[in-house]
Each structure stands twice: as C-alpha cells, then as structure tokens.
Automatic annotation (TrEMBL), chains A, B:
Domain of life: Bacteria
One Gene Ontology term from the biological process aspect of the record: SOS response
Residue span(s) of domain MvdD-like pre-ATP grasp: 2-113
UniProt-recorded name of the protein: MvdD-like pre-ATP grasp domain-containing protein
Pfam family, one: ATPgraspMvdD
Native source species: Streptomyces actuosus
Region (Disordered): 161-180
Organism placement in taxonomy: Bacteria, Bacillati, Actinomycetota, Actinomycetes, Kitasatosporales
InterPro entries registered for this protein in UniProt: GRASP_SAV_5884, MvdD-like_ATPgrasp
PANTHER family on file: BETA-CITRYLGLUTAMATE SYNTHASE B-RELATED, RIBOSOMAL PROTEIN S6 MODIFICATION PROTEIN
Gene3D superfamilies found in the cross-reference section: ATP-grasp fold, B domain
Length: 328, 328
C-alpha cells in the first residue's frame, strides 16, 4: 500500500516527511498535479460495475486501489505546466485526477471537501465557539452602524481579512492591523469587514494537530514591542519557538474541532493573554510546520509520516519497518 | 422560519417555486449574492460563545437563526455587481456570506460541499456503480494505448468532456460525439479523455429527485435520427417529455446515490436501451427542471417548495397553509 503525496517539486517540508516514510519502509509516490499530461499520466476504467485506476509518474505505475493515503500538501493547479496550458485543460485534469481519487478508499490529509470548508473564517469562528475554545469578540459586517456599535463596546480592535490571503499572483498576505477608535466606519458598506477585540498577548501559540497528536509551541511577545504590531507574521522575531504544554481543556476542544471539521491536520494559532488563556485566532488546515519543528525539535514530520502510513481499516497489517520483505 | 433562495434576479424556475412557497404561507427571502454590498447586506457577531447573524435585502432584515432552509439555485458570484467589483471583494464576500450560512442549522438544497463534490464526473460514475445503477463501460485516460485497447473492446464509442461545460463566459456546452473506430488516439496524451460505450437508445430519461420524491420523464428517440446525433441537448425534438414510471430497482439505487452524495436535489440522465434498461449517464445536482414540469405537468416545483418548507428537526410545527395565524 502506497502513500500518495501531491505537492510542488521544491517542497522541503514534504521532503522531511518523505525521509520518515522511507525509514518506515512505506512506498511513496509524489508528484505535482501541475505536471499532468507532461510526466504524470492517469487512467481509470469503469466496466461491469467495477473501477480500476492507475497513476503514473516518473516511470512508476501505481494502482489507485493500492493507495493507503493521500497527502494534499501544496499541489499546483492540474496541468498548469502542460505544453499548451489552458483553463479548460486544468478543469478537465482537475476533475479527472481528484474525481478518481475521491472514489478510492484511501485516507486523506486533508480531504478536499474538508479542506475547502475549513478555509471559511466565519465558519471557523463558530466551530471554535462550539468546540469550547475561547474566541475573542468578533464582528463581520457590511453595516456601518453595527461596526460603530461594536467599536463602542470593544474600543481596542483589530481588523483583518475575512478570507485570508489577497488573491493576486503570488497571493499576498494582508496583515492584521489595529483600528483607531475614531475610525469612520462608513466604508464598511463597500465590503465585509472583520473586526475583532485585540487580545493583549504575552505570547503567540502555534498548536499543530496531526490526527490525535497535538504539539504546541510558544513564542513570548516582546514586552517593548510597538502595540500596533499585532501580526506575528510581520513582527520582528523575539527568539525561537519553544515547546509548550497543551492545557487539557484546550486539547479536548481542539479534538472536538478537528472531528467536526473532519480534518486530519490543522495548524491552530492562539494568542495567550496575561491570565494564560489561549484565545483562538484561526486554524489553517494547510499551515506550515517546518519552522516549528526546526525551532522546537518536535517530531511533527514523523507524526505526519506515521499517520499517512497507518493501515486502512481491514487491511492486513504488515511490518512497516521491513523493506526486505519477500511478501508481495 | 424563513426559506432563503440564492439565485439571479431573472430566474423563472425559481419563480415557480416561490409561487408554491407563497401558497404554503412560508416566508421567503430571495436575493442574488452578486448584489452583496449594493442592496444586500450581512452582519454576524461572535460574542461570549454565541453567534447572532443577519441578512438584509430589499429593506427586509432576516435573522440567520430564523432560516429553515437555503436553496442554492443559480447564484451569481458574490459582490459581482458591486460599485467597484474585484476578485478580492468577491472572495471576501463569498467567504463572509457562505462562511456564516455554513454555521447555521438550516437544511440545504444542495449544501455547497455536496454540490461541489457532485460535479466530479469520475466520482459520479463510481458512485452510480456502487449504488447499483447500470453504467456504460467508460474509460478516462491520458494513455493512448489504454484508449486504443478500450476502442478495440468497445468499437461503438462516444467521447465527452470529463468536467461538463467549457469554462468560457458564458460557459459553452461541449456536445457528446461519436468516435470513429479508426481514430488515432495519440492526442489523448495531451488531455484526459472520457470514452464511453454508446448506448443504442430508444428513449432519453430525465429523473428529477427532490428529497425522497422521484419524478421521471421519457422522450422516445427519433427512429430515423442520424446515429451520430447522440447528445439530446443538440438533437431536434421528437415531441414533448412524457411522465414515466420509475422501475423499483432504479428507484432504490437512485435513493442510495442521493444519500451517499448528500444531495437533496438531483437531475439524473439515463439512456433507455432496446431491452428497457436505464443506463446512467450523469446526475446534475443543479439541473433544470422547468421544461420537464411544463411538458409533463409533474409537480416538481411544488415538491421543492414542500421540501424547503419542512420544519427543522425539533422545530415546533405550525400549520403551513395558514397565513392568517396570529402566532408569532
């Protein structure tokens, strides 16, 4: 049984996981869907009520029935590097590849449907509330009056995009910024605006969830930092990430979140306040983890390799660390 | 409890359903997400573990908690008709609207995740097989040799797109066409190709499923028709659609399909062969039904209105056909 990794060619984070998969003796096929029709080929046959499918990449042929798991890491758009690329060819190739893969019993990290749903920030906030995670008071609105009333109740606010990255090519991260209390909210009518109570944080928390395994890292906030620098992605570093204990209530809530979201992997961002409360900011279902592993030494890539290697329900388990097996 | 309909302004099929909803005395809010920020407004507040959301359209304000169901008919891209439209504004508005709606307990026809998945033709074919529907032998491939071998086994073939409509603006339907037995399949390597055994059909079948209700219509094939005209959408009409009985085994299989696909609505296309077998061609989760209702008199729009009107689980049922009720 093979692990399929869909990602771009230059992905050192995927390389880290492949090293562990190799050590476990698990066969791996890795390719970028962008290479479909130029290096990567697929075929699926529906005859007499049965389906038989194959993928070929770099001269290796793998049966879709033989897939144990699919890791959707950072795949390119299907057939984007074809000899004559087009929106039509990408759509056809995307449908052919993912349409076939959706029909096989492999386990997904993460399933495309769960991944897509998980990107909705308003849905994330609601699920976090329901899962029992503390969520800073938040408003998403196109009503200027609603924004004004919210700012009166919560004078210390930040504004951030509803959807994440700006869709230019390459996508541009829009920083979270503080909102001046005297802001004129009239322009809110022209586009949905996300306002959130600013958490006066003493640390940033990154919690990486891989199946049931939760690994948290913490980075203290710089006490001398300009309070206008609220976005950790754009703030000067205050030192490396350090491993952190996950409070049991947070662990329970995160597991509820992942189960409801049907996610096998999630990178949670929290802001830790002066009382030690972890405030949920977001969960990125494809968040990077390499920088945390490098700083903390936490075995995230190994946890991912182990999750991807797990046998399917009903599959006869074979010793995973034996590469010299003569069994078929 | 209100029914929310997301569709374009000029949608006479939606009008048919609204007439029935009005007759049932069910409150309806209908708008096009394209009008977000210019006529349609939204707001959602996440405070103290709870969510309160509102939509406003044409001066009417509706609470998201008060939504009974959401009918995703033919909505435009969010904020497409804003004063200054942009890809960024559409993405922000799409996320805000659907992200909030995904968090409320309303019933969906169809849920965006189920709708998206259901568009994958390769997945449809596999699910149809598993559900027990007869599926014509089909190959989807980028291997010329696989195409040649398939054509040798099934010399009477059609070719059709994997993904449906060509993504131009407006989208263009690509007709299903016969494949000459002497075809050179070399070009298959340049894009996934769907080849299917041609069903020598004596009739086209359109089965419209609304919840548990299945309504089938049949149109006999023209016996004098050119056998190269395989696509009913482009063939000259042979007369109106007629109501047809659904064979019990097909009904069972279609219900399995809908349950597995998590679809509340589906328009199934079958080809009926000389033995009376219904061969599954596709299920369009947003297929039109107005033309069938007009030809056959089948109460499809009423079935949709009734499905949308059903109370949520746990909701206190109120008499639906009373508009003079003094209850709140």
């Amino acid at each position: 049984m093979t692990v399929l990794i869909l990602t771009s060619e230059e992905d050192v984070t995927a390389d880290m996981v492949v090293v562990h998969l190799n050590a476990l003796g698990v066969p791996v096929v890795r390719f970028d869907p962008a290479d479909l029709t130029s290096g990567v080929a697929l075929s699926g046959e529906y005859v007499h009520g049965a389906f038989r499918g194959h993928l070929s990449s770099a001269g290796r042929l793998v049966s879709l029935d033989g897939l144990r798991s699919v890791w959707v890491r950072r795949p390119g758009a299907a057939a984007a590097r074809a000899v004559v690329p087009s929106a039509w060819l990408t759509e056809e190739s995307q449908q052919a590849l993912y349409g076939m893969l959706r029909g096989v019993p492999a386990r997904w990290m993460n399933h495309p449907d769960a991944a897509r749903r998980a990107r909705h920030k308003p849905w994330q906030l609601r699920l976090a509330q329901r899962s029992g995670l503390p969520v800073p008071a938040t408003l998403i609105t196109t009503f200027p009056q609603a924004a004004r009333e919210f700012a009166a109740r919560y004078p210390d606010l930040v504004v951030k995009p509803v959807s994440g990255a700006h869709p230019q090519d390459p996508p541009r991260a829009v920083p979270t910024s503080r909102v001046d209390p005297d802001t004129d909210f009239t322009a809110v009518a022209y586009g949905p605006t996300l306002l959130q109570r600013r958490v006066a944080k003493r640390a940033d928390i990154r919690l990486t969830a891989v199946g049931e395994s939760l690994l948290a890292a913490r980075k203290p906030a710089d006490p001398d930092a300009d309070p206008d620098h609220v976005d950790v992605r754009f703030a000067p570093s205050t030192g490396p990430w350090q491993p952190a204990e996950v409070p049991p209530r947070i662990a329970d809530a995160v597991r509820v979140y992942l189960r409801e979201a049907e996610l096998a992997y999630g990178a949670f961002d929290f802001a830790e306040d002066a009382d030690g409360t972890w405030w949920f900011l977001e969960c990125n279902q494809s968040g990077q983890f390499g920088f945390v592993e490098v700083d903390t030494g936490q075995p995230i890539s190994r946890a991912i390799a182990e999750w991807l290697s797990r046998p399917l329900p009903g599959e006869r388990q074979q010793p995973l660390n034996r590469t010299d097996s003569v069994l078929p």
